[in-house]
Amino acid sequence: MDQKTGKFHDLFGNGRAIIYGIALLVGTSMGVINPLSTTHMTTNHGGGIWIGVISSSYFFFMALGSVFVDRTMRGSSVKTVITAGLLLTAVCSALFPLFTANAVWLLLMSLMGIGISCNMVGLQTALHNLSNEKSLGMVSGIYSLCYALGLIASAAVAPQVYGYVTWLPFAFSSLCLVLASGIIHFKLADVLVIPERAREKVLSKITLPLFGAFVYGFSETIVVSLYPLYLIREHVAVSQTGYGLSIFAVGSIIGLLPLTYLADRIGRKRCLALCVFISIFAVLGIVTAASMSLKLLLSFAAGFMIGPLYPLSMAFAVQDLSAGERSSGNALFTTFYGFGSAAGPFFSSVAMNIWGNGHIFTASLLLFCLFLTYMAMTRKDSKVRITKEEIL
Fold it and tell me: Are residues 353 and 283 in the same domain?
């Protein structure tokens, strides 16, 4: 009984449950902002190129914002960093449906990317510094699960509300962020401080998990932004195109906890390799399957394996870092995730235009293979270093 209580405390105690609640609220807000911003721009006759640039600017400035947080907010309270970012995003979200100018949309989406980067770096740093190293995988998995549940629920409901009252979903998104800010200010007991810059270079310690963050961001945004388009071009009825994305999301949610639990048992690096390896076959199957039912089954498998890449890479990135290095690690992690998310749809759309619709995942497959190759090379290098140390 004491062991079960101790395990529960490792996962939910010491302020972690509050952080999960904040992740749920932020995910709910993002489920409105990301898809409905595109809908709003399309409805108001935004140019196709402008819509692509504005949507990508969110992820691009998320990446740049993470670098800004890491370099300029050393010694600041984590509460201050997160709250400032969430309130900035809340204001921009409320203002977004009130304008119809491309330049204003671009500014607001860029500021929202910066605001969310403050939340991601600060909240993930707080979560990891409050967590036991042995349970980092599960803790990261629960955090990602709460975020995903909020995102999927609001993404399903918000478009229906938008059809009746344009500004209401964006106002609800802002309310979620304001509530999250209030919870952080009043309920997060430990006042954590972002430490001064670590003397040792963090980047060289976590190149592999950063590659994993880039791969996840790259692949996930391809599915979200281009998978429905791929199905339409494959002559799937428009009413059924949402099924592929929904099944992928369900697979992602279901896969989070089992695979992060497995990672805490067999090793996060090994589990990361397993997920990427199986993802190759699932993604290949999607583009080669002849029937829609088989595509949906493989979409579930792809989601089950690709979805956990985010928490696995995040836990892997910070597991060997000291408390003073984890804010830099999380900032770099968010930066690589942001750049991957911005790059994925661009390179995949180029591949589809040049080589055909079936190459939607070609760039992702290339990255999966490069990731496994790099992992094998770093493993050999580590063995060589160990052998040299033993000889000396």
Answer: yes
326-355 and 207-233 helices, crossing angle to 10° = 30
Q: What is the pLDDT of residue 4?
A: 53
Same domain? For 73 and 142 the reply is yes
With the C-alpha atoms ordered 78, 145, 65, 36, is the resulting torsion angle positive or negative?
Answer: negative
- By residue count, the chain amounts to 392
Which residues 6+ apart lie within 8 Å of 137 measured at CB? Answer: 260, 261, 263, 264, 268, 271, 311, 312, 315
How far apart CA 78 and CA 100 sit, in angstroms, is: 35
* pLDDT one-digit tens code per residue, 99-131: 989 999 999 999 999 999 988 888 888 888 878
Domain that holds residue 140: 15-194
Please name the amino acid found at residue 152.
I
Q: From the CA atom positions of the chain, what is the Rg in Å? A: 21
259 within a domain of the structure (yes/no): yes
- Residues of the chain with pLDDT > 70, as a percent, come to 89
> Whole-prediction pTM value?
0.85
User: What's the domain count of the chain?
Assistant: 2
Which residue, of 173, 194, 215, is where some domain finishes?
194
Q: Which residue has the higher pLDDT, 392 or 24?
A: 24
Residues in Cβ contact with 13 at an 8 Å cutoff, skipping those fewer than 6 apart: none
> Which string of DSSP letters, residue by residue, matches 9-73?
HHHHTTTHHHHHHHHHHHHHHHHHHHHHHHHHHHHTT--HHHHHHHHHHHHHHHHHHHHHHHHH-
